């Protein structure tokens, strides 16, 4: 809902890094129009708390600890289970494609962790008013990307489970894992951080998978994704 009264905005935080959570708690605690109702290290903790202590805005990291739900699937689950909560994504590494997919999945804004902390406060207020927040420096590039049919098509941002279809049988388990993350909107750098591998290793696995599938880029991966009916 859009805010019209003086009641502080109820905010819940999700980030698996303790230092980040504490920094955000300190930052948001200084704003009289904010009230942080919880700060959580895992999606399970967040969702359990939201059932009894709802929040109007969820400030969530895009890439969480290995084994936790994150990326586009996290956004979709939160949007489905808590439709009254607006989602603002925070990420240390991001690109226009990731942002576009996150917004398609249900996020109301995207903030880079390399932006000034004051930008997060402004982004929260923007989203709380019912608007979408984007880093002004990305707006031109983002608008160009949204003209791409592969990103504009809603089916390019569907949830992805294990990659088990016949077309992917020739891939190694790690190649499948990398492609699944790509389909969930994660960049090579984000995948490397998630699984504790080098960027070079992830890039090599991604391109090896592309060669085996006979595709050349992410757009062709999304098109194959739709054609084989991954879900």
Automatic annotation (TrEMBL):
InterPro entries assigned: CheY-like_superfamily (IPR011006), NreC/VraR/RcsB-like_REC (IPR058245), Sig_transdc_resp-reg_C-effctor (IPR016032), Sig_transdc_resp-reg_receiver (IPR001789), Tscrpt_reg_LuxR_C (IPR000792), WalR-like (IPR039420)
PROSITE patterns, A to Z: HTH_LUXR_1 (PS00622), HTH_LUXR_2 (PS50043), RESPONSE_REGULATORY (PS50110)
Positions of the HTH luxR-type domain: 164-229
Domain of life of the native organism: Bacteria
4-aspartylphosphate found at: 61
Pfam name, any one: GerE
Domain Response regulatory: 10-128
UniProt keyword terms in alphabetical order: DNA-binding, Phosphoprotein
Protein name per the record: Response regulator transcription factor
